[in-house]
Every structure is written in C-alpha cells, then in structure tokens.
Design a protein that fits this description.
The chain is mainly beta. It has 8 helices and 36 strands. The longest helix is centred in the N-terminal third of the chain and has 19 residues.
Length: about 675
C-alpha cells in the first residue's frame, strides 16, 4: 500500500515540484551558488515539463535560465526495459538564457565549478552503448546565448526568435540522420574577434601531414530535405576595425535580412551537396544580393556553384563558377593556389557593384555585358573565349593574364578577334597609356584585330587597326616605362592622320609602309630610325607621294637618303636636314628630276627645275638663305620655255659693310646683290 501511494503521489505535479525544489536547494549548497526551479511535471510514461530553472555562476550572474521546457515521447521506461528505440516526439523550449564567460586573466570558464563539484577520482573505463533514441520534432523560441571569452579574445552572442527541426529518423549508433525540415527566423548572431589575455605562443611551422585528410572521419551521414531562413542577421567585427562607408570590409561584415530557401542537403563522406532555390541578403556596405540560385557542391578539393544565377544591386552573373584546390589550407594563398573555373552566360557587370570592394573603378566601363569562359588562379588566369560589350568597348577573343593583382607587373596575352573602342576609353581603362604626346581624344573610333602581349606599359601589338583617323597594319613593340616612350617594329598605314594623332599641325595624312625604331612622339624629342616607302604624305598642306626614306631623326635633324618619284617633287637625296632652329639648315647632295620652285617659296609663279645639287645652307626661303648651293646641268621650264644652265654657284653671306650679299656665278652670267633686297619680290 505504501508503495502504491508513493507511486501515485510521485505522479502529482505539486509533489514533483516540491521534490525538484528540494533537489535545487541541495544543489545550491553543493555548488555554493543559487539553483532554483519554479515548476515540474513528469509523466513517467511519455511527458516531461519544467519551468523556471535558474542557475547562477559563482559571481552571482546568470549562468543559465530555462523559462519553459517540455518533452513528449513514447514510454521511455518501457522502451529501455524492452531494449526498444525510444521515440521523442516533441521537444519544446520557450525562453532561455545561457551565459558563458571567462576573464582576460584566466582560462577558467564560469561553469567550471559544476564539473569540479561532481568530479570523482574513480574513472569508469567501461563503455556503454549509446541510447536508442529517435527524435521527431524540436521547437525553440526566444532563446539567447552569450559566450564572452576575454581570454581567447572571441565573443559570440546569438538570439534565436524561432527554430524548428522536423526529423525523419535518427540512428545514433551508425551516425545516420535524416531531417525533413529546419526553419530559423528572427535570429541574430554577433561575433567579435579581438586581442585576448592569453599569452602569445611562439609560432611553429604548421604540421601539414594531415592536410587534406577526411574531415568526416566518423562517416556521419546527414540528409535534409528543406532549410528555410527568414530575417536572419549576422555581424562580424575583427578588432576595432573602422570601415569606410559604402565599402565592403571582410573584417567588419554586417549581413541583414538574410533569407534562404535550400533543398536536398546531403552530407556523404566528405562531400556536401544542396540546391539553393533562393538566397537574399543586404550587407553593411550597401551591397545587396537580391537573388542567388545554384546547385552547390563542397568537399576537400572542390567548391562548385552550378546552374548559377546571382543578382546584385545592378548586376547579374550566371551560369557556373567553381574553385578547386589541394585542400582547404590553399585558401591561405588564394591568389596562387586556388584554381577558378567560370562560365559566363548573358552576364551583366555594373561597376557600381565592383566599387563596393574598393579600388579605382573610374577606369572600368560603367556597364559591361559578358559571355565566355575563364579558368586558372588569380595569378595565372586563362580566358579561352570571351565576349565583352560595354558602351565604348566591344571585345571578342581570348586573354591570358599572369601576375595579378599588381597591375603594373601583370603580363597580358590577348588575341583579339574584334576590339572596337575609342581612344578615351583606352586611357580610362589603362591611364598608363596616356603618355608620349598621343592625342587619344582624336581617336573616336578604333577597330583592332590582332594580338597584344606584354604589360600595360611594355607590350607588343600586331594586327590590323582601323580608326576614324585612318588605318594601319602594325607589328610594334612599345615601352612606356622610359622617360620617352621607345618603340620598334613594322607598319603599313593608309591615310593615317599623324597630325591629328600626334598633335603636330604641320603633318597630315600618311600612306606608307616600312620599319621604325625610336623614342618619343613629339617632334621636339623624337629619336627614330626609319626605312619606309611613302605612297602619300601631307606636310604643311602640301601633298607628296612616291618617296622612299632611309635615315634617322634626332633633335629635329634628319640624316639619311630619300628618293622621291613625286611628279611635282622628284629627287634623290643624301645628307642632312636640321629643323631645330628657326631657320632650317640643309647639307645634302641631290639629283632633282623635277621640282616646282614656287612650292619652295623661291618664285611666285610655277617654275619647274631639274638639276644636280650640292647644298650647304640655312634658311626657309631664298631671302634668308645663308650658305652655298652648287647646281649642275640645270633645266628651267617657265611658260613652256626651257632654259639650260650647265653650272651655277650661289653663295650667300653677311658682310659688315655691305650687309646681305648674294654671289651668283654661272656659265651664262655672274652677279652680286648686296644690301637690303627681296628676291621673291623681284
């Protein structure tokens, strides 16, 4: 009778609560701190419920508090007695607080006193089988967890508004878990990393022997049919990092309003797979992931996003991206060790989104449309096919890039099937090109097909170039690293307007082919060797054609040979022409087949001459001519009349008493003119 009465009493909530409070009082004395409980109800067959469980730490701060906890199950006692699997149908936790702390000067946690109070010297070495439990449903609401670790320098605070886990089956002995659904809502997580009180230990060479070994050594198997996150917020702060407004900072991440719909999560061996139906989040910098959809795969060698759709504030990226690596430690050297593989399809990249990650995006196109493939590391990236289109740039071809992220040391190997752009766009993309006197603003249309190899400041370009200022076929090496740009190579131009491109108004359109080696583009600093055939060239408004040139230019002085078959200006030339001073100087021998003296400023009317000439003089016309000219076998044609002069010598000089003196000696007459005069005015 006594046993029966006791059994009945033990089923009463008031009795259970009284016993629980007695146990709490005993624990308070045992732990030397406050332990209390408000209410207990236990149905020995299938139900446990308690409220108001409170435990203080030894600093009289809250260690743990459970407001309301309930468990509904099968008959656990009978299941254990009959060696059956107990089914926990429902676990509910509403309202709870856990505070874990350790101070800056101690590695001891504030809950360590509990373990110490119950510690015994006896150690049971026997192993017991894990209980056979099958869990079906877990619900958690309004729970706060705080871990303040000043010793290690890491704090974590989490507030869970609502968490529900629905389980298909649990097999603890074989580590097989099948979950139907996990939903998490109105939750925030805050993590802070800082310098803790733990003394620094000497750095040791890392033990790499276990790098790449399986992380799922117990062969845990986990499947989850559906994961849903709503209004989840995450804050990560490293040190006292002060982040720039509008700039992404990996040391200060604030993700707000995270929404996630995920299906078919599986962990088998070391591989995780899942389908992300939708992910959206807002980051502190202003970057917004409006929609992320992908099939994901993650293991020790691969992270993959297949069937990718990523939409941010102003951009859309699709459809494949993966990273392959030896093991996760390769991410410590992401630039050189992690191989990326991407396929872009109908992607749209807006530089406003790139700006969140820093750098000078003013060089980039405002909006670019991208199709193509890319593979390799950041330091060695190969893009076998790409189509890139923006407002002022249209590119089809392939690219190999080696040396990033240092753009000045980066090597490019570009094979352009089509490159359509403008001069201003080139300067915007590569400001280093804006050197050496090239007027990029005059090139409003550039269409290039060919190859580009080298850096942005030192490269070789070969191919066909069509512009609004004429066309050119080039194979040129250009070095912009020197004070004056240096270059060498072959060229063939068609009506290329050098005057506009180089900002030299005396020059005009050039149609020519040949080779060139030199430095500088400005005539004042030009040093070059040229071997070319000029089909057509305009200089000071005059047109010249059929001229072969082989010589060098330095300090505005040309030395070499030239052969002109110009109908109006035919000659053979060997010697020097110096344009450095106001009055040019000439020292050359020439056979003139036909020349119009009017074009040289010698006569007002058309007077054509052919002769053998030896010149050594200065001057821009016959009036300021100073020096000597020897002409032989002269023929002058004027008004259909021909005058032949076998020999003629002109000597012009200044005399203190006579002034300007011009001596003429010839086979037909001798003459002297002295004083102030103008031959062109006669």
């Amino acid at each position: 009778i006594v046993v029966a009465v006791s059994a009945v009493l033990l089923t009463q909530s008031k009795v259970q609560t009284r016993l629980a409070k007695e146990a709490a009082t005993w624990l308070s004395k045992k732990l030397d701190t406050e332990v209390s409980i408000k209410k207990v109800r236990i149905d020995f067959l299938d139900y446990v419920h308690f409220e108001g469980l409170y435990i203080e730490d030894q600093q009289q701060d809250t260690l743990a508090y459970i407001h309301d906890f309930r468990v509904r199950s099968s008959s656990i006692v009978a299941d254990i007695w009959n060696d059956r699997t107990s089914i926990i149908r429902d676990v509910k936790l509403k309202g709870g607080v856990v505070n874990m702390r350790r101070q800056k000067d101690s590695d001891r946690w504030n809950f360590a006193f509990i373990e110490e109070a119950f510690a015994t010297e006896d150690k049971d070495s026997t192993k017991s089988d894990p209980p056979k439990i099958d869990l079906k449903n877990v619900r958690v609401r309004e729970v706060r967890f705080s871990m303040t670790d000043k010793w290690a320098g890491k704090d974590l605070a989490a507030t869970v508004g609502g968490l529900q886990i629905k389980v298909n089956s649990v097999d603890i002995p074989n580590l097989i878990f099948s979950l139907k659904n996990i939903s998490l809502e109105n939750t925030s997580v805050v993590i802070k990393d800082y310098k803790g009180g733990k003394p620094a230990t000497p750095k040791k060479e890392p033990n790499t022997s276990d790098w790449g070994t399986p992380f799922n050594t117990g062969n845990l198997q986990l499947t989850l049919s559906e994961l849903k996150l709503e209004n989840v917020n995450f804050d990560y702060q490293q040190g006292n990092q002060k982040s720039l407004v509008g700039r992404f900072d990996e040391k200060h991440l604030v993700a707000s309003n995270l929404e996630l719909d995920l299906e078919d999560f599986q962990l088998h061996g070391d591989t995780i797979t899942a389908d992300i139906l939708n992910l959206s989040v807002e980051e502190r910098s202003g970057l917004v992931i409006k929609k992320l959809r992908s099939k994901i795969k993650l293991n020790q060698q691969l992270a993959e996003l297949d069937d990718l759709y990523l939409e941010t504030n102003n951009s859309v990226v699709k459809n494949y991206y993966s990273m392959s690596y030896t093991n996760f430690h390769d991410f410590q050297d992401y630039i050189g060790s992690v191989t990326m593989n991407a396929r872009f399809k109908d992607s749209r990249i807006d530089k406003r989104d790139i700006a969140f990650f820093g750098g000078n995006v003013s060089q980039l196109p405002s909006l670019a449309y991208l199709n193509g493939k890319a593979q390799g590391t950041v330091a060695n990236l190969y893009i076998p096919e790409v189509s890139l289109r923006s407002q002022n740039l249209n590119y089809n071809g392939s690219v190999r890039i080696m040396g990033l992220p240092d753009i000045d040391k980066t090597y490019f190997d570009i094979k352009a099937e089509k490159l359509v752009t403008t001069g201003n766009e080139i300067v915007r993309l590569a400001p280093q090109a804006n050197a050496g006197g090239i007027r990029w603003d005059k090139l409003s249309s550039i269409n290039f097909k060919g190859n580009f190899t080298g850096s942005v400041k030192k490269f070789n370009a070969d191919g066909f170039l069509a512009t609004n200022q004429g066309d050119a076929e080039i194979d040129i090496f250009l070095n912009l690293l020197t004070a004056q740009p240096t270059y060498n190579g072959k060229f063939a131009t068609n009506k290329l307007n050098l005057g506009e491109i180089l900002g030299q108004p005396d020059m005009g359109k050039l149609t020519a082919n040949g080779t060139i080696e030199g430095a500088g583009f400005d005539l004042d600093n030009l040093r070059a060797k040229v071997n070319a055939y000029v089909n057509e060239f305009y200089f000071q408004g005059e047109r010249y054609e059929q001229v072969a040139v082989n010589g060098s230019v330095q300090d505005k002085e040309f030395e070499g040979t030239a052969i002109s078959k110009d109908p109006r200006f035919g000659f053979d030339f060997t010697g020097k022409v110096n344009l450095k001073e106001e009055n040019a100087s000439y020292d050359f021998a020439s056979t003139i087949r036909k020349i119009n003296l009017k074009a040289l400023g010698i006569t007002k009317d058309d007077v054509f001459m052919n002769a053998k000439v030896q010149l050594d003089f200065k001057g821009s016309n016959i009036d300021n001519f100073v020096g000597e000219a020897i002409l032989q076998d002269i023929q002058l044609l004027y008004n259909e009349q021909t005058i032949k002069i076998p020999n003629l010598r002109l000597n012009s000089y200044y005399n203190d008493s006579l002034g300007k003196v011009l001596d003429l000696k010839s086979t037909i007459a001798d003459a002297r003119i002295a004083g102030k005069y103008s031959i062109t005015g006669i």
